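COURSE: Structural Biology Practicum
ASSIGNMENT: Worksheet 4, Part C
STUDENT ID: 0417
INSTRUCTIONS: Below are two proteins. For each, the amino acid sequence is given first, followed by its structure token string. Answer the questions at the end about the second protein only.

PROTEIN I
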Amino acid sequence: MEMDLHIHTNRYSGCSNINPVDALVKAAEVGLDAIALTEHGIRWSEESIEKLIKKSGVKNLIVFPGQEVACYSATGAFQGEFLVYGYPDSLGSNKSIEKLIPMVHSVDGVVIAAHPFKKNDTGDGFYGSGHRVAEYSIDGIEAQHPSYGDEERMFAAQILEKKKMAGIGCSDAHDVRSIGICRTIFKGQVKDVASLCIEIRECRLEAINLKEGGK
């Protein structure tokens, strides 16, 4: 099963220009079996997703509710952004990673570091958790991301080898044309959020980047 687990829409993410219906249509067009809608600190309800699927007319596409949470330490220092799957409520963006992880794990959800090695616009440091990601008891990282070059992919590979956790591929789409550029291939069947979280924890997956010839 091929999935893009990091997509923003203009329904809840002001930084995205993707109409939610267009997201589903594009995902089907590029051969995805499932996607996750990961708005900033906001989780789509199951009812809203059901209505969206019906409105889109797309068949045989699973749509998971996820969210992307920006975390800050007790002193206000930015700790990075994290993808959350399996938590039943919107989490906002005002928690520390130390608080977020046990909240999500208490309901058998998973926490993935979003683009930890995405470089800042200035070229100095990372817009993400960077090498600090190794300090967090999370379930995985984005190992393939459209912003990554060879060095960033190497950093991600080193973390995965050290921590023995899942490395997923995601588009982080804010424009419909980006959907599916990076994706995750799951080796087993994933039918719901619970099974998605299990497969991530068990690392039964592979991250690919179609932009880079499937690396």
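PROTEIN II
(use this one for the questions)
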Amino acid sequence: MRIAVSVAEKEKARGVESPYFQALLAAGAEGNDIELVSASDAPRVRAEDYDGILFAGGEDVDPAFYGEAKQHESVQDHRPRDEFEFSLLEGALAFRAPILGICRGVQMINVGFGGTLYQDMMEDAQAPLPHQQTNLGKSRQEPTHTVLVTDSESSLGAIVQGACRVNSLHHQAVKRLGRGLKVTARSEDGFVEAVESAGEYPFLMAVQWHPEEMVSNSAEQREIFVRFVEKCRERAARR
């Protein structure tokens, strides 16, 4: 089994200390199953060589990819990563590989499916709740608001019964939903917190929070990675 975890360059430098790496280990993957990749690996990384791809958090998506100009100084994009991940997403979908998105991951996937983003939730949508908890002096691991599951028949609905408490580390969010996706959870103030494929697809789940930071304290958050690893292992067996 081979799982690619697409991360920012600085996150790749953390290697096995990366919380994404550690979360996959906690979910049953072996160390040699996991490869952290980034935009600098674009010349050699092909989606078809992996049994699943995790799109991790990090920089903002360039608004040009959803037809907008940059509107706020808070938007910090990294176009090489965008280009790398959109290509990786296209390849993963073509080969029907399991996909898991986290924070930036849900935003990138939504844009990849033709959706748009709030470039800054406070500026563009007057978000009632603070969604960047580190600005409030709270740790990345601390749950700070509730997520409400809106589709009990979804993959997320099979893990979370009704609602769960999550951390919150973002200033952007899904605005117009991409074609082929469905919303499976929202925050207390109404923003999209999770999406999945609306069609028949082996596994495509993306969440706005950071479950990798919470796996040691939450069986629900760990189960997100367990389900993903199981689907990756199934695909590896088929190959």
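ANSWER KEY EXCERPT:
Q1: Residues 3-238 form a domain with the Rossmann fold fold (CATH 3.40.50.880).
Q2: DSSP finds seven helices and eleven strands in the chain.
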